[in-house]
Amino acid sequence: MSRSPQDKPAKAMPNRHTYASAGVDIDNADAFVKAIAPMAKSTRRPGADAALGGFGALFDLKAAGYDDPILVTTTDGVGTKLKLAIETGIHDTIGIDLVAMSVNDLIVQGAEPLLFLDYFATGRLDRQVAESVVSGIAAGCRDAGCALIGGETAEMPGLYHEGDYDLAGFAVGAVDRDKILPRADIVPGDVIIGLASSGVHSNGYSLVRKLVSVAQHSLNEPAPFDSLARSFGEALLTPTRIYVKSILPLAKAGRIKALAHITGGGLTENVPRVLPEGTAALFDLSLWLRPPVFHWLQRAGNIETAEMLRTFNCGIGMIAVASQRDAPRLMTDFIASGEQAVVVGEIVAHQGEPITRYQGEW
């Protein structure tokens, strides 16, 4: 005899699923945003109140003091230096690197950094790690004088290995139209001033990490090149220097013709980007001392000097071009602001596209 529909056995109800059961904890993410709100607030500046939680952030250029502003935007990451932070568990400085890589590019255009946003992506949000990272971002923003006005935290289970995370930064700056760099009056005879780096900064770390591995060193071992007796991991995580506060007043005063942030590509690739056709940058390698980390890297990898100069900053994190008349006072002002500044070369005549040339030896 056939059964009526109501006689059929009930199907087992499937397990109830939530976003949290899939690996994304919204409550944890909300708590994280509340925890970092004071960090963002500490970066408040004229034009921005650094409040978090809205769908967008507002910035008042008039309140920032601009008459005829041009907006300048940059975005960057920290490359595989991030792997060192993850492997060592030192997360509170990598955010400084993130800010530095973008704001140092803004100042090269003569622009004042106004606001910063970050993107933090991970498989599972570890609040302690994330808060440590954001504390570094806030510290970098305070150093650069820009407001941390927002960002994005993405929790994506299955996309990242346990403990891994990724970072990206976005900065917006402004410069009055008549203060944009580089200027058009760069000529042979102009002086090149180098501002010292704090170390390797945030470029070339795929090679750095390979050399540490090839030399069979642990990141916990004392680094032979470090005067503070720090480990390889600690020394190589020295954050990128932020040059904004020492450069911005001088750029606004019209005393700098050009700036170049020495990142991937080194002096060889970055300096010609700000020079006009018919000129070259001539550097004298005997005029500055490389920090010991670069001597160690060159020896450990048997790296040719030309390769060093197009991979690492080799001790010069930023260069400024100035007239012979303005250079001595500019040097004095850089040093007074806390920079280690040295004349490293000059602009020379050159037929064709700009290039970098070298003379002397380390």
Average of per-residue pLDDT values:
91
The CATH superfamily of the largest domain is identified as PurM-like C-terminal domain
Order of helices and strands: HEHHEHEEEHHHEHEHHEHEE
Q: Strand order, biggest sheet?
A: 6-8-5-9-7-10
Taken as a percent bin, the fraction of beta residues is 15-25%
> Which CATH class of the largest domain?
Alpha Beta
Oligomer: single chain
What's the total number of strands? 10
Tally of distinct domains: 2
The percent range for helix content is 25-40%
- Specify the structural class: alpha+beta
Largest sheet: 6 strands, mixed
The backbone outline, from C-alpha atoms, is: globular
Count of discrete alpha- or pi-helical segments spanning 4 or more residues: 11
CATH fold assignment of the largest domain: Phosphoribosyl-aminoimidazole Synthetase, Chain A, domain 2
State the end-to-end distance.
99 Å
Rg value: 25 Å
Short account of what is shown:
This protein is α+β, with helices and mostly antiparallel strands. The protein contains eleven helices and ten strands.
Describe the 3D structure:
- The model is unreliable at 1-5 (pLDDT under 50).
- The radius of gyration is 25 Å and the shape is globular.
- Strand 2, helix 4 and strand 3 (147-155) form a beta-alpha-beta unit.
- The protein is α+β, with helices and mostly antiparallel strands and 362 residues long.
- The protein contains eleven helices and ten strands.
- The longest helix is centred in the middle third of the chain and has 18 residues, at 127-144.
- It folds into two domains: 26-53 and 64-179, 2-Layer Sandwich (60s Ribosomal Protein L30, Chain: A), CATH 3.30.1330; 191-359, Phosphoribosyl-aminoimidazole Synthetase, Chain A, domain 2.
- The strands form two sheets. The protein has a six-stranded mixed sheet. Strands 1-4-2-3 form a four-stranded mixed sheet.
